[in-house]
Amino acid sequence: MTGIKTNLFRSMLLAITLLMGVIISACSSGGESGDSEKNTGTVAPEATSTSSSSAKVEEPRIKLKMFMGDSGVPHPDGVDPSDNPFINIVKDYANVDLDMEVPSYQDFQTKFNLLLSSGQLPDIVHSWFIDETDQRAREGAFIDLKKYYDNSPQLQKYVTPEMMELAKDKVSGNYWRIPMAAQNTPQGTGIAVRYDLVMKYNNNKWPETIDEWVNMMRTMKKAEPDSIILSNRVSGDYTFSYGGTPIFNMFGAAPYTYRVNGGKAVSTFTLPEYRAAVELYKQLYDEGIVDKEFAVNDNAKYYEKVKNKNVLWEYNSADQYVPGGVPKKPEDKTKEWLWAPPLKTYPSVLKDVKYTLPYRWMPIAGHGVYISAKSKDPDRAWKVIEGFASDELHEAVFWGKEGETYTVNDGKRVPIVEKLADKSRTWALHLGIVFGFADGKEVTQAQAEMVQDPAELKRMYDAMKMLNDQAMETGLGLDNFVVLSDEVAKKRPEEAKFISKATVEAIMGKITMQEFDQRVQEFEKKFGFIYEEYTKYLTEHKEELLKAGVKEAGW
User: Fold this and answer.
1) What is the pLDDT of residues 462-513, one digit of tens each?
2) Which residues contact 469 (CB under 8 A, 6 or more apart)?
3) Rounded to the nearest 5 degrees, what angle is found at the Cα of 198, between the Cα atoms of 193 and 204?
4) Kind and range of the H or E element at 191?
5) Which CATH superfamily is domain 4-34+56-185+362-440 in?
């Protein structure tokens, strides 16, 4: 399964945060750091590794359909998802015309679920909801892609055989998806904070306790009564994400996930730390520090508040804040986002500080590309997937064209920052569903050094190293390996909705904390079996998990 703990944020969202003056790494559900070489693997003799392996020119051009998400980076107005310079590279590689359906990030889960329920699948499907997709694949909705992969050096340049093994359905043993490569992704997740606001309202130093954070926010609210200090954005069934979770993370009880303690897995929703976070959230809500619309904000509303209302923080993965080549707008000159260091003193309710630390990412992300069993031409559909892994698309997305988006000086490519960062092309990063959003980091770093303040750039790189060190120490998460039943997959949406509803109602005062406790008891009766399955798998596979780098298997 795709772990909701380690992959929730990274696998669901690309989230190019131009409003914050940063851009995603051109260097999200877990990846490994390090610039590994591309592995071409063992291929069939007749296969080739360049675009010459695309469909033969004498073959008729056919029309195929594809459903994919924009990963939080929509096409600009006037750009046709089915006909633009970037997707046309894929179309020409495969010798097809693609009818693209690309719902917004906010609508993706709903439309994806409706698509699966309808049974009327297009030829190619991209999704980050692995549990649901694998379940339908076992029922016959998608085909096994291993034979195609084994004969595709182009795919193997980015997705190694080891990555394919990690993407294998652990229930059926089939290879339903081509996973997104993520081996170059910066490690870890953390609380990204408006550093300038912290320095302004906390005497030029980081808060060292939760009480200090709360006092700082109160000071800020008094000075800026119109600010929306703590906001949130809703991600499908997951009401709490990004701006809505840092308080939970400081208590070591992130929503919608599990904790391993004494060899047993339990839902964080049932922990005393979660309850304490809800109580603090409610207090801040009553004081007007929490956004009154925290339970209904969509992407657009959230980022508008981030831009104009001095939202203080969000919990996100390191790859979402890699310094890039987007110069700050004049109105953002004083704004600086930076990863917050750990607290010096954590609340007494927290069982162990290790539960607040980030995980190491898997070398693949939660994104995957699938071919429908109903495809009119699976071979040509495969060529479309190869097109998304083509050298031409990779070059277009990350570097563009010589003379237009970069120049060459003494054999070294020099970015033309304003051209590379233009909105007419930055959206294309969401097409990196095979080679990954975090590939091409050399161009991102080169751009950053040209436009970023050196001191600010150093602070960010130092903070990212902090996250990396923490993640490497924590190790991989159990949920990257655990095999759960189809019954669990079917219950996941209901579980998320239950957690969201009870938490929102408690924060808004619609139920008392005593009633919240009753909801927790109800939750354990309805969904406790999920975590019993986690524990059973952990118990039966403890040694192999420890060998694979899952340190929490020994917690």
Assistant:
1) 999 999 999 999 999 999 899 899 899 899 999 999 999 999 999 999 999 9
2) none
3) 135
4) strand 189-194
5) Periplasmic binding protein-like II (3.40.190.10)
